[in-house]
Amino acid sequence: MENIRYDLINALPELIIIGMAMFILLADLFLKPANRIAIYVLAQLSLLGAAYFTFSTHVPSVTYAFTGAFVDDAMSDVLKLMIYLGTSLIFVYSRQYIQQRDMFRGEFYALVLFAVVGMMIMVSGQNLLTLYVGLELLSLSLYALVALDRDNANATEAAMKYFVLGALASGMLLYGMSMIYGMTGSLNIAEINTALMAGAKIHSVLILGLVFIVSGLAFKLGAVPFQMWVPDVYEGSPTAVTMLISSVPKLAAFAFVIRLLVQALPTLAVDWQQMLMIMAVLSIVIGNITAIAQTNLKRMLAYSTISHIGFLLYGLMSATINGFIFAMFYAVSYVVMTLAGFGIILLLSRKGFEADKLDDLKGLNQRSPWHAFLMLIVMFSMAGVPPTLGFYAKFSVLQAALAAGYLWLVVFAVLMAVIGAFYYLRVIKLMYFDDPLDHHPIEAPMDMRIVLSFNALALLVVGIMPERLIEICIYTITSSLS
Amino acid sequence: MLNYFYHHILSFTIWVPVLAGIAVLASADESKPNNTRWLALLGGIVSFLVSIPLYTQFNFADGGFQYQEGFSWIPAFNINYHLGADGLAVPLILLTSFTTLIVIISAWEVIQKRVAQYMACFLIMSGLMIGVFSALDAILYYVFWEAMLIPMFLIIGVWGGPNRVYATVKFFLYTLLGSLLMLVAFIYLYLSTGSFEITDYYKFAMPLNVQVLIFLAFFAAFAVKIPMWPVHTWLPDAHVEAPTGGSVVLAAIALKLGGYSFLRFAMPIAPDAARHLAWFMITLSLIAIVYIALVALVQKDMKKLIAYSSISHMGFVTLGFFIFNNLGLEGAIVQMMSHGFISAAMFLCVGVLYDRVHSRQIESYGGVANTMPAFAAFAVFFAMANTGLPGTSGFVGEFMVILGAIRANFWYAFLASFTLIFGAAYTLWMVKRVFYGEVANEKVAALKDLNKREFLVLAILATMVLALGVYPQPLTDMTNATVIQILSNLAQSKLPVGLGL
């Protein structure tokens, strides 16, 4: 009994969010449409409550719960806090958008909160099955969210595609896990590692399992050659959902990779390094070159995501503590940039108008110099131009890769970054050099404008003073992977 | 208070224009552009005044870095906010704040569209360029170097000519490609030395093959910026499409960033590679000097002609660097300053005509001297200075470089002096076709001579060109000690013992 209580306390933030998600589903039935705003407030409050408990119970040491299936360490706490923050921003940015599209219902908030729980379990999972359940909870919530706008044929198509390919990837992941289990006799991350350290396993079976696991991970991250779903799902989903898919789950996926590859399978590092290397290079090439040909802003950002994942993999493939620190730094920077970028798209869209074409940004500097400036910061940050956060993100992963001896791969990445700069510059060109096609005034609630301004300016401010964020990443990784 | 200022004088010269730019943006009111203009002018004047003590307080006997200041900026990477300026940087910093002031005045009623953004771009860019000249930490330098691209990108793209988008994207991508390779070199040096301090790199010994790679990475960044043949093709496009102010800043300062950086990074960090590859650099310089001068000869667009002339003149600068003697190096520095004034003046002259007739084609003009006598006098004077007429600043630099080149190899000097003929040919031929002869058409006949503002700007620049030509000593005094220091650094081999050629 004592044990159960101890376990539950460790999982308190997850329990709060699950409870609130269910409560929201119920409460939605009894609320009049005019009072629906209460749901929004409840959703924000549940994130706040979870953040409070995560923060206040944080200790630098590692604690295990549920007989070792669940871990509470610095990485889980820090990433969870970032997931709450990111989700909270998504709620702020998307409120008006989903109201205008008749999606402002309990389902939206409940599903997002379930997705958050899935991410939290991915971040805290210490057992292959726990991790898998977390991933599935996240994925299933996302499939449903993509299809939430029922009458939208594109969204339904995207949801189908996402679901079919996602299920396939989950299957691969599970199959890989089963092979690792067969070889080591354990599902626990730490025990797998100990068993592999002891040696004398059939290497070819382990490698086969590893290939399946890495493929599954690559699918969830959206790395080439498992990227096919990304552009279609980004384009087809309602922008608010695209923002969710493209941002915070990458933090969870990062933790997932660290748990599986770095904590469970470090003995196979030589093998997964090679796989990550191939995927990193291909992602950067395909992401950056294909993005040039896009006319749809969401599709362009999809390919941009693929190339960012490539850079993130540069940090991971170094397989050094520094590499993981900077990969985390990259993931966090990426999420901040992506949220701001999609925030601008949501800001420009209105009832019956999606603002998801590149041409919709034309002349933004004439319509609203301030928002054009914010988008300028986001684009330069994505391109990795100082003094924005994106520069330090690229700088640090490249530094880690160079320290690991990948000189020519780094030079190659740099050349691809120049190609990438082209399509980000095109967005700036449209905003600043062209005349507007659309003269509607920008209507957005004040809270969204303020939060969005802070979000985008953070790219500049943290870009000028990145020390604090780097310190957080160093603390997180070193105290979790010692 | 004053003491604080003197201890942080470089920070002030960087951040005053940046803050002024932000203030101009923040107080922008489209309906009252005049307020914006006066505020920008005030910002420009204050920024210039703040930079003057760099000259008055300068210790002429010291060839090292003065006005040093700094603090730890990003300890995780050992990156410091470390500033300092030597006899090479200070003249260029002064040139920057001076040119920015000139640009603000020259843009007064020419720019009608988004005045605040235009002025702010120049003020902010001025601060960033001064940052490039005074950073002693590689990443700080890199941040300024790249950040500078953003306002320039907007200046060409928003206020430029019809083909501006192509030009500005090309400009940005060319420069970005080079600078990212430089970033890789910086990271490599950081991983080997554990520091981003430039002076630590000066002491770091490397085998020749590593030095060559490092040198080539720097070359990619700086050769594009200078620009050297064959990576010069962005410059004519950028110049032709840029608004007058953009051309002025590009020619007067942005090109100098490349020259300055060769002396600050590529050569002292990889001196053996610099000597090893000197033949290569000299060949490229001579091609720029001779071939690009020939290209200039056939241009029909005045801005393009001056752009090619800039490339050719910058060829003298790189030639002066890589003959490794006192005269050549000092001549190259004088040439950089002189070209800063002359090219600025030439672009302003084209701007004066363009504002009235809206054409940059030589064939649209003819006999301008009849309707604009005062302007013609200035234009002819600057054209003469561009050809290197004794008594103007253009002569001093080129003459010193040629003298230095004779010491190195007679044929270098022979080929370099060729341009003096070609330079005279393309410049004077343009002057003849634009200014002399019969009044070509009614547009020229209707021209009004310079207004007071334009007269003031051109008169200031003419004074500077004359002053530097007749009495270059204040400048050479300043650079002397630094030049000696740079040459002695370059003379020392950094190859690890036993690994020599």
Structure characterization notes:
The complex is a heterodimer of chains A (about 475) and B (about 500). Chain A is an all-alpha fold and about 475 residues long. In chain A, about 75% of the residues lie in helices and about 0% in strands. Chain A has a two-stranded antiparallel sheet with strand order 1-2. In chain A, helix 4 (about 75-100) runs antiparallel to helix 11 (about 240-245) and helix 13 runs antiparallel to helix 14. The longest helix of chain A has about 30 residues, at about 155-185. The mean pLDDT of chain A is about 90. The termini of chain B are far apart. The model of chain B has no long low-confidence stretch (mean pLDDT about 85). By secondary structure, chain B is mainly alpha-helical. Chain B has helices at about 1-5, 10-25, 35-50, 55, 90-105, 115-135, 140-145, 150-160, 165-195, 200-205, 210-225, 235-240, 245-270, 270-275, 280-295, 300-320, 325-355, 370, 375-385, 395-410, 410-435, 440-445, 450-470, 475-490, and strands spanning about 65-75, 80-85. Chain B contains 24 helices and two strands. In chain B, strands 1-2 form a two-stranded antiparallel ribbon. The radius of gyration of chain B is 22 Å and the shape is globular.
User: What are the secondary-structure elements of chain B, in order, as H or E?
Assistant: HHHHEEHHHHHHHHHHHHHHHHHHHH
SS-derived structural category of chain B:
mainly alpha
Q: Please provide the count of β strands of chain A.
A: 2
What can be said about the biggest beta sheet of chain A? 2 strands, antiparallel
Please tell me what the overall shape of chain B is: globular
Tally of individual helices of chain B: 24
Low-confidence region ranges of chain B: none
Distance between the termini of chain B: 55 Å
Number of helices of chain A: 21
Helix content of chain A: over 70%
If you average the pLDDT of chain B, what whole number results?
Answer: 86
**Largest protein-protein interface:** A-B, 35 and 34 residues
Average pLDDT of chain A works out at: 89
User: Which oligomerization state do the chains in this entry correspond to?
Assistant: heterodimer
Tell me the β content of chain B: under 5%
Order of helices and strands of chain A: HHHEEHHHHHHHHHHHHHHHHHH
In this structure, how is the largest beta sheet of chain B organized?
A: 2 strands, antiparallel
Proportion in β-strands of chain A:
under 5%
Inertia-based shape of chain A: globular
Overall helicity of chain B: over 70%
Work out the number of β strands of chain B.
2
